[in-house]
Amino acid sequence: MIYAEHLRKEFRKTVKDPGLKGSFKALFKPKKEVVVAADDISFHVPEGEILGFIGPNGAGKSTVIKMLTGILTPTSGECRINGKIPQNDRKNYVKEIGAVFGQRTQLWWDLPLQETYNVLKEIYEVDDAKFKKRMDFLNEVLELEKFIKSPVRTLSLGQRMRADIAASMLHSPKVLFLDEPTIGLDVVVKDNIRQAIMKINKEEKTTVILTTHDISDIELLCDRIVMIDKGKNVYDGSLHELRENFGQTRELVFETDNSSNLTEDLFRKGLNLKGSDLVIESEKNNFKVRFNSTKIPVGEMLSYTLSLTKVKDISVKDSDIEEIIRNLYRQGESSDE
Amino acid sequence: MNKIIKSYAPFMQAGIQTLIIYRMNFLGFVIGGLIYCFVMFYLWRAVFDSNGEGIFLGFSMTDMVIYLFLANTTSQLTYSSVSEVIGEEIKDGSISMRLLKPVNTDLSYMFSELGEVTMKLLVLFLPMITGLEIYRFCITGTVMFNAINFLLFLLSVVLAYIISFRVNLCFGFIAFYVKNLWGIGILKNSIIGFLSGSLIPLAFMPDRLRVCLEYMPFASMGYTPVMIYMGKYGANEILFRIGLQVVWALLLYGLSKLIWFGAIKKLCVQGG
Known about the structure:
The complex is a heterodimer.
Chain A: E1 2-15, H1 19-28, E2 31-45, E3 50-54, H2 61-68, E4 76-81, H3 90-93, E5 97-101, H4 113-123, H5 128-142, H6 157-169, E6 175-179, H7 187-204, E7 207-211, H8 215-221, E8 224-229, E9 232-238, H9 239-246, E10 249-256, H10 264-271, E11 278-283, E12 286-292, H11 298-308, E13 311-317, H12 321-336
Parallel strand pairs in A: 3-7, 3-8, 5-6, 6-7
Antiparallel strand pairs in A: 1-2, 1-4, 8-9, 10-12, 10-13, 11-12
Chain B: H1 2-21, H2 23-51, E1 55-56, E2 59-60, H3 61-78, H4 82-92, H5 95-99, H6 105-140, H7 147-173, H8 175-178, H9 182-195, H10 207-215, H11 217-220, H12 223-229, H13 235-266
Antiparallel strand pairs in B: 1-2
């Protein structure tokens, strides 16, 4: 469905020294510098999959998405979506895709929201019956009725984002590119949007590429993730696998009357753990144990701690993806040095 | 053809609707244009008064009044702001949203603008023509309106708009290279204002310069239709001038396509 082969994008930019003096220097003798935003990015996505495309800020995610949607031309490499090369026949290609860029809008800024949909209906040549069915569906999942008659510039961020997502789905695209669709939204709206993505993926086998910084987006939606950093592929595989390899850490938090007698040494000796397999932090009455769950099962750790002290409250934290990604990023950084 | 209308008409409608929402802005634009016309009128009347003969380089004062008002209205009608729109979209990166639509980029720009042109036609142009004809009737006592000249004039205006649109499109694509168009935009507008004769009739220029300018696309953007309307051209000359307009329209169409294919590869979207 989506093939990206060795995509590379270079930008030229003028660098200037700081300050007014630097600006003048740049005016008369501009120094050009080549920035590589994406370097040898390859992956492919089968039909009907939701792919999480993640990476830290400035990793080149948006650049890759823009190449896949045909906005930017790769410096080298090729992408092929649904058998088409986006740059060759942009007009026909974009009929089959939908895209949302979280920081931009495709809605007509000054017109009531409904007008944008009417315009899109004509542009994408959606017939009346289909359009009506589609609007009903989108109304239902994204709750657009309340503001569909208001001019777009008066919408709140959450409303606008829902409206934008609806706009990208209106023509039943085969592929959906969502670049940070949940940026800056509250939990309820995020949930709405996830529901819409899930539904459309299930019912129409729409392939989705999703970039996000919100880990729960990935956990709830994505079958697979591709991670890039500094323009390069870092990881490609399932979330489950990622967790297996990097996410054995569990964290237990106990609330006790007095935790001063619980030292790290005591645990290390008692349970026979070494090095980074165990980290303990205690602060007043809170007592935090972070440990490698492949070395010692959670149950054992629990009963051991309970045998040492009187516990008022316990909470267990799963290794969250954020932690895993932090680890991965850190690994990437240390291998650079 | 039908399909073109169906998929681009919404751009035009949206253009008109946007204009109506910002109607004070539009009104200001119309009134500002009128004030400018009157300033020019008094300036030229001073010139004619000091000349004392009533005829200045083949133009009577009545001619001059018609020329001033008509040239200004025509240049507003054929004015294309597409270069500013492209410049703005490049500057804030929103051009990427336009590229995601399954439409021809230049046609989508053109139809959004045609909405505005339609409004100018109704609100500014038709009243102006009526006013000018009444003025001519009061001064000369005869009806000077000529239907054939008027139709030829309209044809010439359409061609003038297409040329103006293409020139501005080519100019707008420069934004792909320089990223911010504002400064050279002002330079462009004053050059076009002068070379197209909307400031001073080209007939007043020295002969050699005039001939050169008349062959350039800028004259085709405003001067040609006005001269046709005023009946300053004979039948042959009209044919020749309109032919020249067609040639320029085709050349500039080709040029803008050429620049587009070069520029799209250079595109880098600013800000995210």
